[in-house]
Amino acid sequence: GTRIIYDRKFLLDRRNSPIAQ
Amino acid sequence: AKKKTVVPGAGEHPLQYNYTFWYSRRTPGRPASSQSYEQNIKQIGSFASVEQFWRFYSHMTRPGDLTGHSDFHLFKEGIKPMWEDDANKSGGKWIIRLRKGLASRCWENLILAMLGEQFMVGEEICGAVVSVRFQEDIISIWNKTASDQATTARIRDTLRRVLNLPPNTIMEYKTHTDSIK
Asked: Where are the beta strands (DSSP E) in B50-123?
């Protein structure tokens, strides 16, 4: 199957997303 | 054994694997036997998405601010952060000793690389540990098959890339059977 790959910047950008709060 | 206890919320970004955060702290004066190790280690919680990870991590003390003999462990859900676990017993770990002041940044870079599947070694990664000690801190990443040299070399090269370490940093691979001796 497909692997879910995220780079550091993508993960850091999700840090303050409204969903994460 | 790998039953998932959490799922991504609506609109969240799923991770390739679920993970569990653990915390342990050595009680002064107690022997470091396997039993007391298991008793001292506490589950913080499990997550399945990027957003759920940040909800845990944002509320956790950064390793550089911990005192005493403490460890954070981040392992795939279903794998206990101890060598006796079936996923770990034939495995080993890359160990990097850090001078004081580097642990928080290195730990964050390490776990972001692990959660984002940057190591490209299939199912081999088990988890990561940051160990806060008196004079230095130690970060490590554990994999399933210590004898698989292509995998261990790939993990080492990825660590060098993602941690952005000083050039003189020493990296050491230890099998868990060596660690027990």
From this structure: 70-76, 92-99
User: Residue B111 forms beta bridges with which residues?
Assistant: none
pLDDT by position in tens, chain B (length 181): 456 789 999 999 999 999 999 999 987 666 666 667 778 899 999 999 999 999 999 999 999 999 889 999 999 999 999 999 999 999 999 999 999 999 999 999 999 999 999 999 999 999 999 999 999 999 999 999 999 999 999 999 999 999 988 778 899 999 999 877 7
DSSP H or E segment with residue B14: strand B14-25
Q: Give dist(CA B77, CA B106) in Å, integer.
A: 22
Contact B117 A6 (CB under 8 A): yes
Cβ–Cβ contact A18 with B under 8 A: no
